[in-house]
Amino acid sequence: MGQNQGPAVGRGRPRDRTLDARILEQVLALLGSHGYTGLTLDELAARSGVAKTTILRRWPSKAAVAAAGVERVALQSVDVPDHGTLRGDLQALLYGAVDMFVRGRGQFVPRLLRESGHHPEISDLLFTVIHTRRQAYRRVLALAIARGELAPSCDQELLIDLLIGPIWTRLLITRDPITDEYVDSVVEAVLAAADVKPATAA
């Protein structure tokens, strides 16, 4: 995924990281309001208060700077909870996902998903977000296995699919509200399907 590269390193004055951050914040804002198709380097430069060449010295293309912005928010937004039970950890992850993708800085992600069929380069951007978040679920499931709540032979990828699938169905297809009660019902259904046992004392 060549587009997922960071800013190019060149000679001369040290890089202004606050400027990098300002550009990437504007990328996220434009992805949310315009989508990937409507994102232009000219508008990004104007919103960031820099010349277009300043952006291109850091990232060689629109896809590269978009990928850097998406990676920034993906890495900043996933905390791995450890509440002592799988139920509590899964609720925390799903509540966080709803906050992120419905009300927070990740609101652009559903829009990118809708655009991805027409723009293959978007798949790299989505992989960054999806892979990062799935890693958090894997770590939570590993904690549950260590506590004796889940069997080591459980299909972790299937459990993750069962957890996030209903959320994305509402985000992308039905547009039905995603309430805390709905999130809780998804977690309870997955816990029942996985035959989760009480945690054993360490």
Architecture overview:
This protein has about 200 residues and is mainly alpha-helical. It folds into two domains: about 1-75, Tetracycline Repressor, domain 2 (Orthogonal Bundle); about 80-195, Tetracycline Repressor, domain 2 (Orthogonal Bundle), CATH 1.10.357. About 70% of the residues lie in helices and about 0% in strands. The chain has nine helices and no strands. Helix 1 packs antiparallel against helix 2, helix 1 packs across helix 6 (about 110-115) and helix 5 crosses helix 9 (about 180-195). The longest helix has 25 residues, at about 120-145. It is elongated.
How does the SSE layout of this entry go?
Blueprint: H1 17-38, H2 41-48, H3 52-58, H4 62-76, H5 86-103, H6 108-115, H7 122-146, H8 156-174, H9 180-194
Helix pairs in contact: 1-2, 1-4, 1-6, 4-7, 5-7, 5-8, 5-9, 6-7, 8-9
Strand content: under 5%
Fourth-tier CATH superfamily name of the largest domain: Tetracycline Repressor, domain 2
**CATH architecture label name of the largest domain:** Orthogonal Bundle
Shape designation: elongated
Sheet with most strands: none
Query: What's the number of domains?
Result: 2
Helix/strand-derived class? mainly alpha
Quick check: average pLDDT?
86
The CATH class of the largest domain: Mainly Alpha
The CATH topology name of the largest domain reads Tetracycline Repressor, domain 2
Our count of helices gives: 9
Oligomeric nature of the chains: single chain
What's the β-strand tally? 0
Gyration radius from CA atoms, angstroms: 19 Å
Helix content: 55-70%
Poorly predicted runs of 5 or more residues: 1-5
How far apart the termini lie comes to 42 Å
Order of helices and strands: HHHHHHHHH
